[in-house]
Amino acid sequence: MTAIIIIFITLMAFLGAPVFIVISSFAILGFVVADIPIAAIIVDIYNKFSNTPLLYTIPLFTFAGYILAESKTSVRVVNFSKAILGWLPGGLAIVSLAACAFFTAFTGASGVTIIALGGLLFPALIKEKYPERFSLGLLTSSGSLGLLFPPSLPIILYGVVSESSINKVFAAGMVPGILLIMLLSIYSIFTAQRSKSAKSEFTWGDLIRATNDAKWELFIPVLIGVGIYGGFVTLGEIASITIAYALFIEVVIYRDLPLSQVPKVMVKSMVLVGGILIILGSAYGLTNYMIDAEVPMKILDVMQDYISSKFVFLMILNIFLLIVGCILDIYSAILVVVPLILPISESYGIDPVHLGIIFLTNLEIGYSTPPVGMNLFIGSFRFNRSVVTLYRSTIPFLIILFIGLMIITYVPELSLGLIDRLGIR
Amino acid sequence: MGNRQAENGLQTSGQELPGNKGTIEAILDLISGLEKGLLVLCLGFMVVLVLVQIGMRNFYDSGVAGGDSMVKHMVLWVGFIGAGLATRERSHIRIDVASKVLPKEIKPYVQVLVDVFSIIISAMLVYAAYDFVAVEHQGRSTLPFMDIPVWIMQVIIPIGFVVITLRFAFQAVVNLKKIMKR
Predict the structure, then answer these.
(1) Interface test with B, best of A8, A31, A51, A56 (most B CBs within 10 A)
(2) What share of chain A is helix, strand, coil (3-state, %, to 5)?
(3) B95: burial class by Cβ within 10 Å (0-12, 13-18, 19+)?
(4) Closest approach of A286 to chain B, Cα-based (Å)
(5) What is the reported pTM?
(6) For position A324, what pLDDT does the model report?
(7) CB of A59 closer than 8 Å to CB of A156
């Protein structure tokens, strides 16, 4: 009977039932079978919400990101990147990568990057004679680039779920994040030279003008960086300060966002947050049940019979996570899969912080992989091309990101070096 | 990863039907107005409370009594109200492979099946949440912040699930009507 119900729930999941409903139904099933009142699920949800110190940074940073997304921040950031990087071969492509990364760090790879920047950058790339397929692939796969940088939502969520030091996870993402951007930049330079794309002249006048335009927004990463590592305030406090600051500059200084629109932005951002938090709640119910039932330990026992080396384990882990990334969105994946693989990978001697970076890189790739990669559909919608065209366009980018993933996986120093060197705790 | 949130602002919020509005729809509209107002209040309160705490700590070396736990409870409110509105906009995260491969003719039927499944599960969550709050209500514990009874902060959980259930039910009815029309 239980088996039939499990199959039915799985079927519902693939037919499009909301993820929180699917997870809740598994949790309900688990508790009913174990003869525990299902109110226990709600106890788990409530305890987690009222005891997790980092959780409140999620709505706050998301709101801050949406304030920027609803203003003309994208235009100013692109202009600034163009003034500073546009003269390089492959300049505009590199500009796109940098601007997308900046934007994704603040809006959490929720598709906002492609929506906000795609329409701006795609015509510009075509105008500078970048091949269409290259431009599509670039902008689609960059929609999740930058989620390794603070204060992106997935990286905070990983800190919450794995209960590791958020400052460590933030620091760990920096070098791997830059590595991915550099790898994609190298490819962009080659493509630009092959297709004889245009590049802009560097002038101090442009740089000064663009910097002056964007200076208020460029200060935000500084604010967050100093806030996190300065030690005067907590992460949630930085988030609130960022909101106050972002509201001040967009409403008062730039006047991009009328005050009357602010409630709308609040609601819009909280609909996204609500969708994530309710999965978080239901996932706690389910993972508590699975950990009680010692599911990770049982998987580990089986695995240890077949896999003894860390090297092979990491390979299997990556293949598994790439498949997960193809099916699940990043938030559900973090919430459901991390609690299961964390104890397993720890027993293979993998640092939880390093695991986080591997995990997020995999999921970043998963955003653009067929059949259900979210970026592909948003890109298809935004650029008005068929999803199949986008599948083909993103392939070279996926290969490069995969190379980056291998480096990040097998060179843990990239993730952990900065933490040791700076003595971050 | 069939995820519809990104298209949020671009798709119309899901469920407007042509023709006159039914009673259920009018009620749901009223609720969504309330939800939006409450959401703005809760989020605004959260931001202000955190900012006030920074100020008090640095200038007076003190804090708001129970401010931390109040902020955490606000997350609960923001989360559940947001989730209710996400149901309205059909922007819950789903896997949703099927809607991309299934033939058009059977899609509405599948939709109704999924809706009914969602109604059953969320109704069970209403029951579970009610059970939970009822027990806490008897416990009579209070928050350090202004001595607010804890159950009042928790009551958003059953209310949130009730709203979600109602919305799923409404969507099921809309989808059923679509099938009947053909």
Answers:
(1) A56
(2) 80, 0, 20
(3) buried
(4) 13
(5) 0.88
(6) 86
(7) no
C-alpha span between A35 and A276 (Å, rounded)? 29
Q: Cα distance from A362 to chain B (closest Cα, Å)?
A: 14
Residues of A in contact with B156 (CB under 8 A): none
Nearest chain A CA: its distance from B109 CA (Å): 11
Work out the angle at residue A225's Cα, subtended by the Cα atoms of residues A213 and A95, and round it to the nearest 5 degrees.
45
Q: What is the pLDDT confidence band of residue A382, given thresholds at 50, 70 and 90?
A: confident
| CA atoms within 13 Å, Cβ hemisphere of A80 | 19
Sign of CA pseudo-dihedral B146, A271, A281, A246? negative
Give, rounded to a whole angstrom, the gap between the first and last alpha carbons of chain A.
Answer: 49
Q: Do the interacting molecules here have an ipTM over 0.90?
A: no
Q: Could you tell me if A39 lies within 8 Å of chain B, comparing CB atoms?
A: yes
DSSP A282-315: HHHHHHHHHHHTTHHHHHHHHHHHH---HHHHHH
Q: State how far the Cα of B55 lies from the Cα of A325, in Å rounded to an integer.
A: 43
| Contacts with B116 (C-beta within 8 Å, 6 or more apart), sequence order | B172
User: Rounded to whole angstroms, what are the CA distances from A155 to A234, A326, A346, A418?
Assistant: 16, 19, 19, 17
Residue A89 — left, alpha, or beta (φ > 0 → left; ψ -120 to 50 → alpha)?
beta
Q: What pLDDT was estimated at residue B1?
A: 35
Highest mean pLDDT among B53-62, B72-81, B131-140: B72-81
pLDDT one-digit tens code per residue, A15-69? 989 999 999 999 999 989 989 899 989 998 898 888 888 899 999 999 999 999 8
For residue range A316-327, what is the model confidence (pLDDT) as tens digits? 999 999 888 888
Interface list for B 33-72 with A (CB within 8 A): 36, 39-40, 43-44, 46-47, 50-51, 53-54, 69, 71-72
Two tokens, residue A425: 């705790």
Q: Which phi and psi angles does A203 have, rounded to 5°? A: -135, 145
Contact check, Cβ <8 Å, B86/A274: yes
Compare A19 and B6 and report the one with higher pLDDT: A19
SS3 B142: strand
Q: Peptide bond preceding A151: is omega within 30 degrees of 0, i.e. cis?
A: yes
